[in-house]
Amino acid sequence: MSEQPMWIDTHCHLDAPEFKDSLSSVIEAAAKKNVKAILLPAVKVGDCSQVRALAHQYSQEIPGLVYTLGIHPLYTNQAQKGDIETLEQEVIKSLSDTRFVGIGEIGLDYFVEGLDPNKQEYFFDAQLNLAQKYQLPVILHVRRSQDAILKALRQRNISSGIAHAFNGSFQQAQQFIALGFKLGFGGAATYERALQIRRLLKEVPIDSFVIETDAPDIPPAWLKEEGFVFNEPAFIPRIAKELASIRGMNEADFSSVAWRNAMHALPRWSALCAEISSLHLAP
Fold this sequence. Notes:
The protein is α/β, with parallel strands linked by helices. It has one domain: Metal-dependent hydrolases (TIM Barrel). It contains eleven helices and eight strands. It has an eight-stranded parallel sheet with strand order 1-2-3-4-5-6-7-8. Helix 7 links the parallel strand 7 and strand 8.
């Protein structure tokens, strides 16, 4: 194992407007913190080319930088039915790209007001069908929609993926795990008042969680009081330190487990990162 833990961020929106003028420095800061792998999920069809390009542009700094393609539920109101056909063409284009690892960010959001639930469900179902057709894992947005998403997953043969920013019940967590999914934990768990999330992180099986920032969103508890404006991938080691403490683990072991779990969730990522993983994971 390397002397300094190597870190992975399984959900980070590097293409967000907040990073437009500072992306190079954001990437550099993450690399200095030994962040070796980042997953960049698309949120709408128009982003596909950009996330693909970014994954390659910064692959020297972050060797495990990968992307997924999908339509986020918050963008379904503005999406057109033809976007599914366009998305499928983008997926086909990316299948030969080793930095393409799945479908996402997709899902259902029953928290944000003003979203058409029928449109959400249409695009979610269509994208799950794409994932099944091309045998790809999925990155799921599951805000107040865990049961509906579980029902949709049970109707298909999708073997793996990540339930991003998981905040359901322990029983729902068990059901996602049984379907082959890992659960994403990040900055929300750094708040002492986040009792449910912290309890979940502590109680779920050791092979069932991954770590993420969701940068520039889901700021950790200390972000604003220390003068930072946005969350960013360089913060993953500090976030992970607090998550490790909740689990009662040391940082090095926690880092290895989080890395291994992410690779299991996304086999194409594992193939890309095989050399990095061999350095990171002790026999």
